[in-house]
Amino acid sequence: MTSLSIVIPVFNESGNIAPLVREIIQHLRGQVAFDIICVDDRSEDDTRDVLIALAAEVPELRMLVHQCRCGQSAAIRTGVKYALSPWVVTLDGDGQNDPADIHDLIRARANADPLVRLVTGWRVDRQDAAGKRWASHWANHIRRRLLHDDTPDTGCGIKLFNRAAFLDLPYFDHMHRYLPALMQRAGWKTMSVPVSHRPRRTGQSKYTNLGRALVGVRDLLGVSWLIQRSHVPIVSEIGSGRKL
Which domain of life is it from (predicted)? Predict the structure, then answer.
C-alpha cells in the first residue's frame, strides 16, 4: 500500500481534533505517503478555527466544510470523494480511536485475500459508559443475526477500505454502520481486527441510546431488504477481438 487518505468527520470536537491530527502525523509521517481530510459538519463550537490554525502547521491536512449539517455518513462520503489515495482510513473525530492501530489494519489487509476491500476495527475493550456498551452489544447481536455479516463491531470508527468499492455502495444516512454488510452485498470480502479504544478527552457523545435505536431499526430493515433483493453478477468478456 503506497499511500493512504485519512478521513475524519468532525462535529463540535474543538478539544479533540488537534491532538488526534498530531498523533496521526506521529505514527504515519515517514512510514507511508498520506493526506488527512477533516470534514467539518457545520460545527457550532470553534472546531473550524482550530482546523484552520492546524492546517498552517500540517501540510498533509486538508479541510472541508459542510454548509449545512448533514450527519456523519455524509461527512465520511464527502471526505472519501475528495480523497487522493485508492485506500482510505476513517477515524472518529473524538480521539477514541488510536491512530497507532492504522498499521495493524494495513498489515491485515496486506496478508488477506485480494477480495478483501474492508478491514474494520473491533473494540475489544471499550471505554464507554456501561449503558452505551450494553446498547451496542445488543445492537451488534441483532444486526449479526439479521444481516449475517460476521462482524462483531460495526460501530467502530477506525476502518480501512478501498475508495472505489466504497463509492460504489448505495448511499443513505447512517450507512457507515453497515459497511461490512454493504461490502459483502457488493461481492467483496471483509475482516475485523482487534483495536484499542480510549476514553474521550473532552466533549460529549453526539448520540443517545434511544436515538440510535429509533433510526437503527429502520436502517436495519432497509439494509436487510437491500441484501435480499441483490444479485452479484459474475461477468466474462467473450469475443471482444481486442488484444490485451
Answer: Bacteria
Indicate the pairing of strand 61-65 with strand 33-40.
Answer: parallel
Which pLDDT tens digit goes with each residue over 117-151?
A: 999 999 988 765 666 665 566 666 677 778 888 89
Instruction: Residue 186: give the domain boundaries.
Output: 3-228
Output the DSSP codes for the chain: --EEEEEEEESS-TTTHHHHHHHHHHHHTTTSEEEEEEEE---SSSHHHHHHHHHTT-TTEEEEE-SS---HHHHHHHHHHT--SSEEEE--TTS-S-GGGHHHHHHHHHTS-TTEEEEEEEESS--S-HHHHHHHHHHHHHHHHHH----S-S--S-EEEEHHHHHTSPP-TTGGGGHHHHHHHTT-EEEEEEE-----SSS--S--HHHHHHHHHHHHHHHHHHHHT---------------
Q: Is residue 18 included in any domain, yes or no?
A: yes
Domains held by the chain: number: 1
pTM of the model: 0.86
Q: Which three cell numbers stand for residue 108?
A: 491485515
Q: Is residue 215 part of a domain?
A: yes
